[in-house]
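To the structural biology subgroup,

Please find below the input and predicted structure for Cell division protein, which we are adding to the shared reference set this quarter. The sequence is reproduced verbatim from the submission form. If anyone notices a discrepancy with their own records, reply to this email rather than editing the shared folder directly, so we keep one authoritative version.
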Amino acid sequence: MATIILKTLINAPIERCFDLARSIDLHVQSMQSSGEKAIAGKRAGLIGLHESVTWRAKHFGILFEMTNKISTMEYPTFFVDEMVKGPFKKLHHQHQFKIIDAQTEMTDVFEFQAPFGLLGRLVEKTFLKNYMLKLIEKRNKTIKFKAEW
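Predicted structure (tokenized):
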């Protein structure tokens, strides 16, 4: 299983960062390059505990659908979204928030496993992990910009 850990410092209150990280609308805005849209479940506003959203997006020229559910939430410090249906064998994304001095540290712990056994592991290592990191960085840049604005 591949793991990405990404820390982002934001000059904004922890509550604002937490809410922006679970904003469906801001997520769609940050993923414009892949045409990502919320097509079922929670389709706008702030996603909450036990709510799910189905995303449709184009990656690598292929249209994908994925349903994620918020399985754990401790406002405003932690939430987890997990794939319940979609292209990965497993996807588990922890969103952690803590105050450091006058800033919020937002930490993503993103774990995923591609399907197809050995071939999937090869794909993870050769390009998929870096591709997913770039998507998370793009999303976090949007959150940081909006939170600090």
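Summary notes: Residues 2-148 form a domain with the Alpha-D-Glucose-1,6-Bisphosphate; Chain A, domain 4 fold (CATH 3.30.530.20). The chain has one domain: 2-148.

Regards,
Lab coordination
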